[in-house]
User: Which sequence fits this backbone?
């Protein structure tokens, strides 16, 4: 989790895909707006699934609490990761979401807000159904390998057939193992680009066949180019807000 406050207008901020389900719990006086690229605008607290395309946010005097959930945890608390674009948090969680937002608005500090969200997520997760430990293991292996683990190797490691892993993984994360690997590798690449590494260097270090392969993946995930995505404001705060596990207010 991370807290954000921007006492200025934020216009046309492109959302860069990330290997997590992202919640924006809107706590400001003026609502945050998210355009989904299909002519629909969501206002207020929004949930964004894995690998969204064409999402852009805007608003003024923004104050929000951003939460990144692994797709397995998102699935456990009833929040599908395969939104495709975005959904209002109240459409997913219903009245509990409205009550949580009210408590967050009345909290006296970011630390108290973080604790309230952690409590809500833990409560929802405790009442969820069983999750396949094999899927969790496969997801962890993909994250540790930066998306390079092969599906056949994952299936052998967890003792499942390739078909069963593919089916159960997709049901509980919203992506196939191959799709998850692509997204994890893409995330690693764009953060290296944002830190100033040249596209050719990033392609070689991250495991793409060549620079053209990197360019195609960036275009597929964002509709942009490596040079353009390297300066995306969306990535600017990541080294501050998400450097360490836990909660950070900026």
Assistant:
């Amino acid at each position: 989790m991370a807290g954000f406050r921007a006492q200025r207008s934020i216009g046309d901020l492109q959302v860069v895909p990330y290997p997590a389900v992202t919640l924006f719990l809107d706590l400001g006086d003026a609502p945050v707006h998210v355009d989904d690229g299909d002519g629909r605008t969501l206002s207020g607290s929004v949930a964004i699934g894995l690998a969204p395309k064409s999402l852009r946010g805007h608003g003024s005097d923004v104050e929000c609490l951003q939460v990144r959930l692994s797709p397995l945890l998102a699935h456990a608390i009833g929040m599908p990761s395969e939104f495709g674009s975005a959904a209002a948090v109240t459409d997913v969680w219903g009245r509990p979401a409205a009550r949580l937002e009210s408590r967050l608005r009345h909290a006296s500090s970011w630390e108290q807000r973080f604790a309230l969200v952690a409590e809500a997520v833990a409560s929802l997760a405790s009442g969820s159904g069983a999750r396949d430990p094999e899927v969790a293991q496969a997801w962890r292996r993909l994250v540790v390998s930066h998306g390079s683990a092969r599906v056949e190797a994952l299936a052998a490691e967890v003792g499942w057939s390739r078909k069963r892993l593919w089916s159960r993984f997709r049901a509980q994360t919203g992506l196939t193992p191959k799709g998850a690997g692509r997204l994890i590798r893409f995330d690693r690449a764009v953060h290296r680009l944002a830190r100033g590494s040249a596209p050719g260097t990033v392609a070689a270090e991250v495991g793409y066949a060549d620079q053209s392969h990197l360019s195609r993946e960036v275009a597929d995930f964002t509709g942009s180019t490596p040079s353009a995505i390297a300066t995306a404001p969306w990535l600017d705060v990541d080294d501050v807000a998400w450097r360490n596990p836990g909660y950070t207010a900026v």
Observations:
- DSSP finds twelve helices and eight strands in the chain.
- The beta strands are 2-14, 21-26, 33-35, 41-43, 46-48, 56-69, 86-88, 248-249.
- Confidence is low (pLDDT under 50) at residues 245-250.
